[in-house]
Amino acid sequence: MTTTVAVVGATGRMGRLVSRLIEESDDLELGAQIGSNGELADMIGADLVVDVTVPAVSQEIVDFAVDHGLSVLVGTSGWTKDRIESLRRRVEAQNATDDGQVGVVIVPNFSVGSVLASAFAAMAARFYESIEIVESHHARKVDSPSGTAVRTAELIGEARSRLGPVIAPHADQRARGQQVSSVPIHSLRMQGVVAKQDVIFGGTGEILTVTHETLDPSAYEAGIRLALGALVATRGVVVGLDKLIDLGPGE
Predict the structure, then answer these.
(1) CA torsion 115→119→121→127, rounded to 10°?
(2) Which of 69, 118, 166, 178 could form a disulfide with 152 if both were Cys (CB 3.0 to 4.6 A apart)?
(3) 154 φ, ψ (degrees, to nearest 5)
(4) Which of 68, 81, 137, 243 is catalytic?
(5) How many domains does the chain have?
(6) Is residue 250 part of a domain?
(7) CATH number, residue 17
(8) In CATH, what number is assigned to the domain containing residue 136?
């Protein structure tokens, strides 16, 4: 059975990549291709929706899809904890109906390497009190900090839940970055960059840096395929590609 997918944000870089992967798939069929300012009603009739737009319109797109019983893969940044909790309640209400089958998968970064780097950072967070993130993206990226950096900081905060916040002196100064889960995040938007994140841990007499750099958008392909495959069976809201990957030790 073929699953039809509507892509919103289809004219953008990620939208074109997602559309190509759907066209190459044996199990998926590309339905509507909608621009960021296109008619949302065009997604009705598809089995699934992919949102790869911009933060300013992403919530409207996802709310429309959920209200019409469509599952959504969200690859757009800007989904804060509060927005996700509001969405979770919306999806639960939709699924409380007799035939509610809606799932939403929110993926800040489709790169498997990025997911692993964030997991490594969360692992290290229990051993260091001084932690900061420096993330770099191309000059066209409209939001900061990146969704990946926010997700990494939240994972660090969860890992340190019993230890307390990180040490972040002079947090009142603008140059100290934006704090997420007490972790300062510094954002660079520059030409010549695709995506890079450094999580820097300071300890007594040592520095540990967990670095991930995306060199080409092809790094996102495996994660997009994985997320699309998982969305078919997802009910409720799932956040992060890490939730779809077995990060436990191998046999």
Answers:
(1) 180
(2) 118
(3) -65, -40
(4) 137
(5) 2
(6) no
(7) 3.40.50.720
(8) 3.30.360.10
